[in-house]
Amino acid sequence: MQKIARRAAELIEKHRNHTIEIISHMDSDGVSAAAILSKALDRRGIRHSVRFVRMLYQDVVEDLEPSDLTIFTDLGSSQLENLGKKFRGHSVIIADHHEPVRAEGWPELVHLNAHHHGLDGVQEISGAGMAYLIARELDGNGRDLSALALVGAIGDVQNAWGKFLGYNQEILKEAMEAGVIRKSKDLMLYGRYSRPIFKSLEFFTDPYIPGVSNSQAGCIWLLKDLNIPLRDGGGWRRLADLNEGEKQRLASELIARAYLHVPEELVKFVPGLIIGEAYTLVKERDWPMLQDAGEFSTCLNSTARHEQPLIGFEVAKGDRGGYCRAMINLLQQHRRSIARGLEFIDSGGIQRGPRGYLQYFDATGVVKNMFVGSIASLALGNARCDPYRPIAGVVRENGTAKISARCSRLLFLRGFDLSKAMRAAAEFCGGEGGGHAVACGAEIDENKVPVFLEKFEELLLAQIK
Ligand SMILES: [Mn+2]
Predict the structure, then answer these.
(1) Are the C-beta atoms of 338 and 375 separated by less than 8 Å?
(2) E strand or H helix that includes residue 420
(3) Which of 143, 193, 252, 257 is the most exposed place for a label (fewest CB within 10 A)?
(4) What is the mean pLDDT of residues 430-452?
(5) Using 50, 70 and 90 to split pLDDT, how confident is the model at 7?
(6) Lowest mean pLDDT: which of 115-129, 169-183, 378-392?
């Protein structure tokens, strides 16, 4: 793997006076991957341009113009055949972790893919990790870029079980040695450095914690009960401000309460979802929302969802001025849209599938389709929702329905896989779908929504049996 990464680095050096373009995936991992390589190229004084695409569909590939050297990060391996039609004969680097298709390469192609080296690209290394391998060869001092490689891996939910696996462990080790990441055991709450602790608790919904998930008043009571002050001299206390004793009291109480609610066969998984490894970007002391690697990743993801990945890209490369402000604006917009969506859920937006198992909502006209997934996640903690059943959300725009589905990680631990059912149901309706076992999506013709829901529910019911 290292050898191929070195060949890629050499190819980049060889083209230092030619045109170079980085083309990356428009998501948190892809943004991180592009930022890593771009920084490494900058440090070597090599000029280049960057662009992001959603997918390398045939029509997208046709619109691309080969540069003297084109570098694909976090995509390319599964679309090698499409790429070959346009790029055969041109210098190309692919650095990807998606499953490669069987297709002929060409002599000027350097293809670096996790799967070719016995790594599981789903869990063990991300697109940003693959880009990091090249950056490390290109720039001997590139070890600090490992932090971004981990931010990308989290974007692809590669730390789903509370820690990193496989080669990500290696990268984590390098990040700690380089002094850019600190690892600690902590509660798995969002907003470690950026939100008051009661807020972080309120939004914790997987697993569902009775009296805590979605209940601000309940969270405040709980903290009082546990003798954990909400404020100190400086203002609201955040998770990061709690001392060890306070964190332990809180963790035990959350686990005890979750036990009361979780189906018995899942009880053993609960502690692992509440306590896990937290990763702090040591150098981001002045930027609370970038201090926690998971939150950093969410920030990048929101710029990609708004189709403004270049904002996230500049922030990932280090901008803390205009781009960072633009990103904060996007996040605020994002929150407002999410709040609108949750109001809709609260006012009775949840419906049942034809067989009474699936929960779903149709938020067409309430929010834009890019928010449907976030709202589905949060809706799972809503009092009107059963947290141990999957939920799907639909938003129809311009004739196309975007569907997102979510389920508790506990269901996945029981062997449930939403993405399988999603893909099959979408294909059944002539659309496309996929994603992760607990979070996935599809796009289909808007008239096919009822058919889709029926099929999806049928497939899910079959999985439970
Ligand atoms: Mn990826």
Answers:
(1) yes
(2) helix 418-428
(3) 252
(4) 91
(5) very high
(6) 378-392
Beta carbons of 417 and 317 less than 8 angstroms apart? no
| 91 CA distance to ligand 1 middle (Å) | 23
The tokens 């046709």 sit on which residue? 62
- What are φ and ψ of residue 129, in 5° steps? -65, -40
Which residue, among 349, 379, 351, has the nearest Cα to 363 in the 3D structure?
349
Cβ neighbours of 462 (radius 10 Å)? 9
Neighbours of 217 (CB within 10 A): 10
Question: For domain 2-156, is the CATH number 3.90.1640.30?
Answer: yes
Summarised one tens digit per residue, pLDDT across range 84-119 is 999 999 999 999 999 998 888 999 999 999 999 999
CA of 217 to the centre of ligand 1 (A): 38
Does 353-464 match 2-156 at the fold level?
A: no
Sequence-ordered list of residues with C-beta below 8 angstroms from that of 282, at least 6 positions apart, any chain: 179, 180, 181, 182
pLDDT range class, residue 124, cuts 50, 70, 90: very high
Q: How confident is the model at residue 452 (pLDDT cuts 50, 70, 90)?
A: very high
Could you tell me the distance, in angstroms and rounded to a whole number, from the CA of residue 26 to the centre of ligand 1? 9
The answer to whether 13 and 109 have CB atoms below 8 angstroms apart is: no
Gap from CA of 128 to ligand 1 centroid (Å)? 7
Give 95 Cα–ligand 1 centroid separation in angstroms.
10
Residue 202: strand, helix, or coil: helix
Ranges 70-84, 165-179, 427-441: which has the least confidence: 427-441
* pLDDT above 80 for 383: no
Rounded to the nearest integer, the mean pLDDT of the chain is 94
Say how many Å lie between the CA of residue 454 and the centre of ligand 1. 31
Helix residue ranges per DSSP H, 116-166: 127-138, 146-155
Cross-strand bridge partners of residue 70: 21, 92
Which of 251 and 434 is assigned the larger pLDDT? 251
Domain boundaries, given as residue ranges, for the chain: 2-156, 186-333, 353-464
Task: Output the CA 219–ligand 1 centroid distance in Å.
Answer: 35
Handedness of CA 41, 94, 171, 155 (dihedral sign): positive
**Positive/negative CA dihedral, 409, 414, 420, 421:** negative
Ranges assigned E (strand) in 173-285: 181-187, 231-232, 235-236, 275-281
Closest C-alpha to 211, from 224, 221, 225, 196:
221
Q: How far is the CA of 72 from the centre of ligand 1 (A)?
A: 12
> Is pLDDT of 50 > 80?
yes
* pTM of the shown model: 0.91
The architecture CATH gives domain 353-464: Roll (3.10)
